[in-house]
Amino acid sequence: MTEPAIPLLQAYARRIRELRRADPDVPETALAPAFQQLLDGLIPLLPLAPRLTVSPEYRRAGVGRPDIALVRHGAPPRAFVELKAPNKPADPARWRDHDRRQFERFRELQCWATCNFAEFRLFYRDDERGAATVVPESALRPDRDDARADRAVAGHDPVPFLRLVEMLCAGAGQEPNARDAEHLATLMAHSARLVRGIVRDRLAELHAAGVVNHPLLHVRQTFRDVLYAHPEAGGYPAADFDALFSGAFAQTLAFGLLLVREENGDPVGQDAWRRMPEEHPLMRTALRVLSQDEIVQDMGIGFVVMCDTVNSFTPEILAVRNGHDPILYFYENFLQTFDPEARERYGVYYTPVEVVRYMTASLDRALRQNLQRTEGLADPTVTILDPAAGTGTFLLGIAERVRAQTETQAGAGMAALALQKLAGRMFGFELLIGPYAVAHYRLHHTLRGHFGSEPLELPRLGVYLADTLAEPGAATSIGSLGFVSQGIEDERRAANHIKEHEQILAIIGNPPYRRLEAGENETLVGRWMDELWDDLKAPVRNADQGNQLNTFPELSVAFWRWAIWKLFEAENAPGRGVVAFISNRKFLTGWPYAGLRKMMRERFDRIEIIDLRGDVRRGERAGVEAIKACSTSWSERPSRWPSRTAARLKANWPRSTTTTVGCTASSLAGRSSSGSSAEPMPDNYRAPWWLNVLPWTICDPDHS
Fold first, then answer.
1. What SS3 class is residue 212?
2. Torsion, Cα of 189, 194, 197, 202 (10° steps)
3. Cα distances (angstroms) measured from residue 378 to each of 401, 403, 414, 559
4. Residues facing residue 121 across a β-bridge
5. Could you give the C-alpha distances from 209 to 66, 202, 206, 242, 487, in angstroms and in order?
6. DSSP letter at 524?
């Protein structure tokens, strides 16, 4: 292997010297063919290297391509080499500016290498596996005579370099086969990070060049105006929209492709949007937007790697086994790699599964025990809505509970039928396209899962891209991409029908928490909601505490007011129902939210508060084990708690949090009593942690 390699290396060094003699500042793109020829000659000499084609990616446009790809016949490229000029280091840790941004992208690749024509370094993702000298650096100098350069190359040991090339070739033949659901989530996250970085850097290039008419910019503007309207209302800062858009782009593409792959079983590619199931019409449109020819060209190797990841996994690893659905934790695992800091930045972004299970169990119990004539979440007459659906975690928890209950009581066959019916009476509103795409995939997987027979036929999945707080029927932008318009209009028409006419009995979720700044009432809450929640301020003003209302405007309060409107005041409102929300605990104390507490006491027969004590100013946080224990032992508790009680749980939670379940058998609007005055919470609410049952005054004592 060594002896035949020496003439190839000498010819390679000679060609580099000639090019540098002709132009001392010759760029790496002009030197790249020499390195390509070297690999073409060396690979057949390596005993363990598969048959590969060395593809000159440097000849293709786009920011998302390393200079060289190694391609196995019949497979996509899976190993790459990024070349740098001889005056630059091969060590990417020393790269700066544009090169540094390349490193941030390429470190998501499974197998890749860097080379400055003298030094070669091999990486698996961001883990360096070895470095070696291709030829002595002196042999590449333009002032070195050919005879001396040939002797330097002949005296150099090429084995370390050849071994690294052999490892690179082995990587080119390695499929990204996922071992299990968690591994698949990690692989998907790496490919999504690659796409995110490519899109972000391409946008930076276009902005720097002053380009205004480009397909990627048109897609960005459509996301900004239509599919990602008011990102602040969802808990996401919009100061750097390119970063926000790039992340949404990558997640929408990843979970859209995964949905199509799992549904059809066939490999996905640029035309995957055509095979999107009919129950996801807007997802079909979104995937089509991201798969335009010019967009795919800009994504470069990112699109190839993502499709390869999706096409290489075995769908059976996502099957439900022993009652466990791996999709419950799939997005959590994805997020740990894709954006590990997200759960601390945005409380709306991630809700622990243990909390979701506890909340859905509470909702189910309240429906059965406290709402007249229902049999819980499995009751075909119970309609369910998550007005801040995010990635669909609560809706997924409801599906899990309905399936488990039905399987236990009637068998797997009836569980499939129960999920099919659940799909037609369970709804969600999500403001932002990225989480919306994830929700559609997760729910599709769970609701349409195989139960030993054909997959279920589903209605149009009831998760809509919609602003919950916007006035029903209000006109909104439909964007500049013509073929997007119809999908957006249909989506909003269906969402408005649910807002105005659908009788919802159960509302559950984790609304975003955000203290509104001056002027944000109009932009984030909207004029309709700003007028609607004015009745929560009146009791505070009437108690001569109007000066306390400067801290009142807060998004989770708006969702509370919307939920009460939907149950009791909207057209065709049922006049009864259950609300189960996670929200900031500040509404429990102080004057600003006394009007909300008053309305809750007036409208609900029964209110339960589970204080998760996430406020570090009130004491240290603890583990989520208390919630796990509480959720598994719920059935052992008394069947009906006294209504004037609260239970406290220690939980690892990113913000000060409570879960609140309010249920009413009939509309109690206008009811008044000594317990319904506007008043702050008493100081004795601050009490020890764990499951201490405390006397409390948020419920009307006349309805204990």
1. coil
2. -140
3. 9, 9, 11, 25
4. 114, 131
5. 22, 11, 5, 16, 33
6. I
Measured in whole angstroms, how far is the alpha carbon of residue 464 from the centre of its chain?
16
d(CA 656, CA 547): 24
C-alpha–C-alpha distance, residues 605 and 418, integer Å: 30
Give the DSSP per-residue string, 621-668: ---THHHHHHHHSGGGS-SS--SSEEEE-----SSSEEEEEEEESS--
Q: Which distant-in-sequence residues (6+ apart) come within 8 Å of 636 by Cβ? A: none
pLDDT in tens, 411-460: 878 888 899 899 999 999 998 888 899 999 999 988 876 554 566 677 88
What global pTM score does this model have? Answer: 0.83
Contact 604, 663 (CB under 8 A): yes
Residue 527 tokens read as 């004029």
Check if the beta carbon of residue 293 is closer than 8 Å to that of residue 269: no
Q: Which residues of 21-51 are buried (b: 16+ CB within 10 A; e: fewer)?
A: eeeeebebeebbebbbebbebbbebbeebee
Q: Which residue has the tokens 């996905």?
A: 268
What does 296-341 look like in DSSP terms, one character per residue? HHHHTHHHHHHHHHHHHS-GGGGS-BTTB-THHHHHHHHHHHH-TT
DSSP 3-state assignment of 359? helix
The β-bridge partners of 124 are: 127
- pLDDT single digits (tens) 588-646: 878 899 999 999 988 888 888 876 665 555 554 433 444 433 333 333 333 332 222 22
Q: Which residue has the tokens 């190359």?
A: 153
Q: How far is CA 140 from the centre of its chain?
A: 48
**Tokens representing 143?**
């002032």
At CA 531, angle to CA 528 and CA 536, rounded to 5?
130
How many angstroms separate the CA atoms of 356 and 393, rounded? Answer: 7
User: Is the distance from CB of 194 to CB of 302 less than 8 angstroms?
Assistant: yes
